[in-house]
Specification:
By secondary structure, the chain is of the alpha/beta class. It is built from 9 helices and 13 strands. Strands 3-2-1-4-5-6-11 form a 7-stranded parallel β-sheet, with helices on both faces. Strand 4, helix 3 and strand 5 form a beta-alpha-beta unit.
């Protein structure tokens, strides 16, 4: 297939491109051209401003794509631009969304129906969460092509430029205090390898609509801290002072997702506890 990836030269985007190439697809990467990638002559490259209509139309006029991946759509304006530029250019649009579309905490896993983009009122993107909600809403209410919105939780991996897991490892190793608002809050996660693999798997199927994607299993922030303590051999210094540095995973409540939709379509997720300790070991 002829595949376009908007963004994708960092983190799990690189895994996605590697998997697509392994599957035998012709891959074009469209970025600003500021970050090098490791794919050499195996991919085509287009330098483009994803957020400029003039730039997009100039770069992609009269090109047809079997699948387009959008790794850098954050607002309904971004979604609108994609719908207009690629109106008759693709048969499948795969948009990287987020678990952040679920705007509450609860003790049961969220299913895709807990946020309905087909009826949600499109709003100005005054936050990352709202941007993703309204981007989904724009696609599902106005897109002229089939769309899959992949709702990822926090993605963990060795090349995670957010360094959120590194924050915990380093603070515990160095004896630095940090604040956790609710030690019992539970979260789901996905590895960068699995995130890229899942995205690539979608290219060869017909799964559309919103879809949750995360590793099997959940872990509380308390259990995560204990796992890091055991691996690095030091005790965490936790504080009840909210003015202290806050854990990047420190949520007031639990957020977990059901992946039944993806599993029924044929995808098998890894177990969280099969890869998380090894990742901590590598990063300690």
């Amino acid at each position: 297939m002829n595949v376009l990836v908007l963004g994708g030269t960092r983190f799990f985007g690189k895994v996605l491109i590697s998997r697509l190439l392994e599957q035998g697809h012709a891959v074009t990467i469209a970025t600003r051209g500021k970050t090098a990638d490791p794919f050499g002559e195996r991919v085509n490259r287009i330098v483009v401003d994803r957020f400029s209509e003039i730039s997009l139309r100039k770069a992609f006029q009269d090109i047809k794509w079997d699948v387009i991946y959008d790794q850098i759509c954050y607002t309904p304006e971004d979604a609108k631009l994609a719908c207009e530029v690629f109106e008759s250019s693709t048969r499948h649009y795969i948009f990287t969304s987020s678990m952040a579309v679920y705007d509450k905490f609860k003790d049961e896993p969220f299913t895709e129906s807990d946020f309905d983009p087909y009826t949600y009122r499109i709003q100005d993107a005054n936050s990352y969460d709202e941007g993703k909600r309204s981007a989904e809403a724009y696609f599902y209410q106005k897109a002229p092509f089939p769309v899959t919105a992949v709702r990822f939780p926090i993605v963990m991996g060795e090349e995670d430029y957010t360094e959120r897991l590194t924050f915990h490892i380093q603070h515990i190793k160095d004896g630095q205090a940090f604040y956790v608002p609710n030690e019992q809050s539970k979260m789901c996660y996905i590895s960068s390898e699995e995130a890229g693999d899942f995205l690539a798997w979608l290219a060869e199927g017909e799964l559309t609509g919103p879809v949750n994607a995360c590793s099997d299993g959940v872990i509380s922030i308390k259990e995560l801290i204990e796992m890091i303590e055991n691996i690095v051999g030091k005790r965490a210094v936790l504080t009840s002072d909210p003015t202290t540095e806050r854990s990047p995973y420190g949520y007031a409540g639990s957020k977990m997702m059901s992946t039944d939709k993806a599993k029924k379509a044929g995808y098998s997720f890894t177990q969280l506890y099969d890869w998380l300790p090894m990742l901590i070991e590598k990063q300690k």
